[in-house]
Amino acid sequence: MKLITAVIRPEDLETTRRALAAFGAPGMTVTPLLSGSRWNRHLEVYRAEVLVADLVPRLRIDVLANDEDIPDLVGLLARIGRPPHGGDDTGRVWISAVEQVVRVRTGEHGEPAI
Amino acid sequence: MKLITAVIRPEDLETTRRALAAFGAPGMTVTPLLSGSRWNRHLEVYRAEVLVADLVPRLRIDVLANDEDIPDLVGLLARIGRPPHGGDDTGRVWISAVEQVVRVRTGEHGEPAI
Amino acid sequence: MKLITAVIRPEDLETTRRALAAFGAPGMTVTPLLSGSRWNRHLEVYRAEVLVADLVPRLRIDVLANDEDIPDLVGLLARIGRPPHGGDDTGRVWISAVEQVVRVRTGEHGEPAI
Amino acid sequence: MHLDYIPYPTTGYSSGDAAWQLTAATLVGLMSLPGLAVLYGGLVQKKWAVNTMLMAFSAFSLVLIVWALWAFNMGFGHPWIKTTVNGSPSGFLGKPGPALGAGQEAQADIPLLDGLMPPFNFSQSALFYFQFVFAAITPLLWLGSVIGRMSFKAWLVIVPLWTTIVYSADAFMLWGGGYWAGKGAVDYSGGYVIHLSAGTAGFVAAAVIGPRLRRDREHGAPNNLLLCATGAGILWLGWNGFNGGDPYFAGADAAAAVVNTNIATAAALLVWLIMDYALSPTKKPTLLGAINGMIVGLVTITPAAGYVNGMGAICLGVISSAIVWTAWYKLSKVWIFKKVDDTLGVVYTHGIAGLSGGLLVGLFADPNMIVYPAGKAKGSSAFSVTGLFYGNHSWHQFWMQLFAALTVIAWTAIGTFVILRVVGLFMKLRLPDQVLETGDLAVHDEEVYPPQTLTAVGAAAAPAVAPAAAEESESAASSGASEP
Amino acid sequence: MHLDYIPYPTTGYSSGDAAWQLTAATLVGLMSLPGLAVLYGGLVQKKWAVNTMLMAFSAFSLVLIVWALWAFNMGFGHPWIKTTVNGSPSGFLGKPGPALGAGQEAQADIPLLDGLMPPFNFSQSALFYFQFVFAAITPLLWLGSVIGRMSFKAWLVIVPLWTTIVYSADAFMLWGGGYWAGKGAVDYSGGYVIHLSAGTAGFVAAAVIGPRLRRDREHGAPNNLLLCATGAGILWLGWNGFNGGDPYFAGADAAAAVVNTNIATAAALLVWLIMDYALSPTKKPTLLGAINGMIVGLVTITPAAGYVNGMGAICLGVISSAIVWTAWYKLSKVWIFKKVDDTLGVVYTHGIAGLSGGLLVGLFADPNMIVYPAGKAKGSSAFSVTGLFYGNHSWHQFWMQLFAALTVIAWTAIGTFVILRVVGLFMKLRLPDQVLETGDLAVHDEEVYPPQTLTAVGAAAAPAVAPAAAEESESAASSGASEP
Amino acid sequence: MHLDYIPYPTTGYSSGDAAWQLTAATLVGLMSLPGLAVLYGGLVQKKWAVNTMLMAFSAFSLVLIVWALWAFNMGFGHPWIKTTVNGSPSGFLGKPGPALGAGQEAQADIPLLDGLMPPFNFSQSALFYFQFVFAAITPLLWLGSVIGRMSFKAWLVIVPLWTTIVYSADAFMLWGGGYWAGKGAVDYSGGYVIHLSAGTAGFVAAAVIGPRLRRDREHGAPNNLLLCATGAGILWLGWNGFNGGDPYFAGADAAAAVVNTNIATAAALLVWLIMDYALSPTKKPTLLGAINGMIVGLVTITPAAGYVNGMGAICLGVISSAIVWTAWYKLSKVWIFKKVDDTLGVVYTHGIAGLSGGLLVGLFADPNMIVYPAGKAKGSSAFSVTGLFYGNHSWHQFWMQLFAALTVIAWTAIGTFVILRVVGLFMKLRLPDQVLETGDLAVHDEEVYPPQTLTAVGAAAAPAVAPAAAEESESAASSGASEP
Ligand SMILES: Nc1ncnc2c1ncn2[C@@H]1O[C@H](COP(=O)(O)OP(=O)(O)O)[C@@H](O)[C@H]1O
Ligand SMILES: Nc1ncnc2c1ncn2[C@@H]1O[C@H](COP(=O)(O)OP(=O)(O)O)[C@@H](O)[C@H]1O
Ligand SMILES: Nc1ncnc2c1ncn2[C@@H]1O[C@H](COP(=O)(O)OP(=O)(O)O)[C@@H](O)[C@H]1O
Asked: Which residues of B fall within a CB distance of 8 Å from E284?
């Protein structure tokens, strides 16, 4: 069992959700966060004072998955961010091991709980 | 050392906190996130336009714990969400390994830092 | 490849960012969360009703890093929170293994993607 | 073609008085919408803000329809059953009847006050509207006691009944020339008819309907203090119309009432601030405390605004603020005050403050504060009120004030209780607990700060889903809890 | 040294009428700023709130400059080309000219109405300002149709043109004594000139400029219902000035107009609420639905406010609310109403509601509702309007109302279309898609709720960065999406 | 029993003028509460919003108490030490004394202006209240310079002193018939007495108290632009009362002043918008820039509103907006303007704009703008002011304006400095750094958007905790920083 974590642009959320659902992985969590990177950074101006937003809003997607689905899911997630926005910050996907998963509703453990 | 992560309903936060404190694990982080699942989904209506909220607010609880406490903690967390809300989305609990923990205040490492 | 996670005070964000950038690790995510601990807790008063905020705002910093940078990064992060605020809640840093990382923009995998 | 029109009758009409009456009424209207709506909308938990505001908008509308169709004449028309007080015709309630026809353009008239005040200088429409905004704000005030659990449907039924039965009678007795007016009790612009009554009704209603969810009582933090300040500011300045409009003329007493209103309010706000500084558990001055003090000042001067002088206004502000502060901190811990869940504390800031102000009229009314100057008739003397401190130590006015207050409390409490119980036979007064868990989303499908991630149904091939049943939306309701 | 001054001329001046006119105008001004600005600012998505509000503030300013330099006289001055209607001088448009000099302190005057109404009791400045606030609110209303994609620069160009060409002509024809006024069509205070025109212009503009981004249409949740309620409350009560100020005198008809305004609004709000309860898909009453109903009531009574009696006001409110509710739910699903992206639905709540109210004047106008009483001249009779139900079954007034409506629709539609097309030759009417993705940040470098993490440039050795190009800020724009 | 009352004296009283004066005063009051309170509350960082608003509510209250007990008569009563200017009695400060008794219902009177203006048509209460709202808004304005570090307790002490010593004297000299009034310097409604003075006081106070925390200066983003727009809109329209009320009569000049106010404001707003478009570093128009321009327009026309014609109003708006824009962008980078931390830039939008408007009166005042028409006495002529461009090239008025400005600047600067230094001997003017880190929570135990997760003490067996010491709450204070 693994946990796939992806940092995506907020505007890609819907595409991502649909892709995951189509793949058969409806369960996920979406966490708003701020992302710092080499690329993203913009200015805002309030009363002539120029302020930098060097952390920009991103979404973190966490999906628990079985080992065999990992390559497909990573490919899927890595593909979404790419095409139109090439050239600047386009996110990261990473995988970590999970030792145990419990579905609270049923108390199921392990892979069936994913 | 492990990290236990649980996705819970916001209304279970207090019960969770109290249960963890009673168990002797007061330290935790609580992260608001949006959860997508097969179950949860509701409608909102603004000016006669019907909109779907298919991501609903949940809380992610992260607790660092020693290996020996894991079964108890998982049991505890998995129990909380269950009773009254049976039938729909009731959350997940999962465990992952942690290689090192540092308590910043003292600089302690490893298990004593938990 | 590892993921370093640190829970810091919001006011230490800038110091942290600058320290990481100076170290050559500009990429990171910053997630606002609420932290429960033995220490932090304050009161608010609305219309004479005294309310407790026993979860206080903190930031979670996640940094993907190569194995060899880990000790330095942990040291760096653990140092920031310490000096002036000694005595109460000063955060945690922990490390977990990451099995794979993909840079979405280029599709690179593994260490070069960090 | 040259026609010959005039703008208004040349006798019995003053464009200045008409202008002021309409302006004052508009200011009072603004106190309700958006004033109270957003003050309360900001003071309640996030999960109840929409419900609170919709109740305010609906009640304002309902009262107007009722007022126009029958209730205005119950408050200010001919007495239904004529009685006599001190030799003058009097009564307890006006005869219901519509106030809708073109005849409303004629000179204003309150039958039982004929000859007891100068003839009106504007039309019945202006009087009707001015009195409407008072009638409308009263249920909006005691809405503050019942938010967070009252059924919206029951609210829609109860407000019209309450205006008809409770408010009209209170208004008739004190303002329409009814019993207590005849006895000489005075209420300059609603310390009793509006505030004491709202405090009483709210408290009784809160008791009958029962408390909020325990969860809501324990997490009762407001959601937006900027909007509280917006509403509070509108209340304060709108009150210039509230008290300034009540002499019905843009005369000197209107201006004096405005000044007194502001002075008492400033004093009460500062007293609350200082008591918070000196005596509250955390020893800190607070914005919401200051706003409480402000409301106490506004309410307490209301029954007295044009009867006391500036020194009296300061005294009323100081005394009532100290009393209500103490009640807020101490009385609320004991007896039924502890048990009844009066959500926003209307019984203190309106009930007690209104009562206190009304009684203090009996002490501080200054006979030199001329409401209406003397006319030219021989022996004619001006109209003013005399309190204990200015009137050869006579407690007369005080007793009248007290008895009138008791009547208002009794009538309002009984009326409110009966209405709620009777309506309660036909529908639930209280929302089911499951709905209460969720709040706005369950009742109205709306949130006060809608998430920007919502997607139109049908868009993006989102599968159709059933409308949010309370059960389902329960989880979403707690979204408040999930924000840092 | 003792000088001899008087406050104002002793003839042809009434401080009461002047006070009311200035007060009414100020109330109408408040309806625009902050009323509409924050109602719309709260109703739009978070990403467009700043843009919406800045458009409102700018348009208000632009209209005033145009109004002062030439347009006031196009609406209320001497006819440019004199014609005759029913034997009286008339025309279609006034002669442009400045309204800036000291002469504005003289008695007010609308040349073509000389002798058709009582002489004004205040100065031309007061008339100018009162009419300005009406001129200003009109483009602010139809701003609601085009927000979320219209170029800010184009807006700055189009508003002055639109006021000059479209608004002035509509105003002149109905209020300046022009053609339709001569024919006997009436518009008490802007059901046609303002609301029907705004609904038409907004719809045409939305069609010409094209729809919002598909993403924005699919995620069109409002951002702040507390501010919607703030704006809505100010609109309601501000409307007392809107309709109460239009007789130009603080007379009985002003008060009647105020009462009718409120009655129709209350009725319309409640009808919308009940229809939402009974007929909407989710069967729940909503705050934004109530506000829609409220606006429909306010708009629909506007052309009728001083002509109908209270019963008529209730009927107008009920009928129009039912019509507009149905249009909102059903008409919007068909035909061009489905295609054109009228962001906030101005064509329904202003266009249809204004039209409906204007036509219903032809049915419900009560001749006993006296706008101006008869003077002393022999045979002099009061001024009022007679509708079908009160006038021996004559449809005359109805037809006049209908033809005037068609003229306003046609002129506004054509004028708006031509202005947009012509301006479109010189500049883009629509923002580029990349900018639309981002919204406020791309257009104004501002967000409505600025993040508190922003750091001043130069502070903390933050490296210099280039100003936010649309491309870059695109990502930030979606910050709304990232909040739970 | 039929009594004989009249509503107000039949001579020396006009209900129209009284209605307007009360209405105008209420509008000005609304500019403070909620206007300025929420404009500033939205403009500051989230961590200071509650503190800012509470300072506004408290100062408003304090000024009223002081005004009633002694200060009104220092500004508008009999001169304390009588002097003579141009043969007329004059002085520098009025004799302190209460304005509380029933005598306030008598006809209004400013002793030194007897015979220099038409006798008042309303009561002293109305005059008192109108002048109070001006006195009250002034410290609220310069609050903008010191928020984010000033001790709340010190604020409570300094405001009464400042009103007594600084404001009263400025008011007396220009409005109470004092020295500069006698010399012929004019200030229509407070360009000097209010705005120049507020700009000066704010700047001096900011310098004396010292800057905000470096962290706060570097993260000075506002928190809510919807509330900024709410406050700004109320300011604009409320200014109709500010400038329209100052002739003390609802005459033609009041209307002209209202028109000029709006014209200058529209022009100034648009100029700022265009300069932002054309000359600002990011070349984008901004809402907060537009609001700055708006304020500049409102302020700059204030000393001139009824003296210039419409063309003059446009010129004032354009010139002052260009000047202040330039100062805002350039002057702020140099010299002491760079050093002193004037939080919201009051010295620019009020100080410089007020000064500029006051001086331009000397150039643009049009003698045909009649403030008071001539009476019937032989040789009587109207009252108006003549500037350089209309007066045979005489610089006389300009010099008077300049000297009066210098006096106001000097007196205000010195007075403010001394008050702060003296109070500083007894208490800290500045909050400790630890408290500054936290902001509202440390000072008031309140947050502007309270988290919905807070739990009542005692509920759910939450262990008791000590009240938030600054130390402890420090962390919570940064909660702003933790929101995306
Ligand atoms: N594969 C997954 N990865 C991450 N989180 C998940 C996953 N599946 C479910 N969850 C989380 O667990 C919660 C419960 O899952 P859900 O599928 O709705 O209910 P159940 O598993 O009880 O049928 C969801 O709200 C979601 O946040
Ligand atoms: N067991 C844990 N699991 C997760 N986070 C923890 C744990 N213990 C502490 N933390 C986090 O670390 C921070 C510091 O912990 P705390 O116990 O308050 O201080 P200290 O360890 O210095 O005594 C807390 O704010 C909390 O967010
Ligand atoms: N070392 C890292 N640890 C955690 N997140 C990272 C790291 N590097 C990048 N990220 C995340 O991935 C996103 C893309 O990284 P960035 O360096 O901007 O672009 P790219 O890798 O495509 O050049 C960033 O927004 C950031 O959130």
From this structure: 45
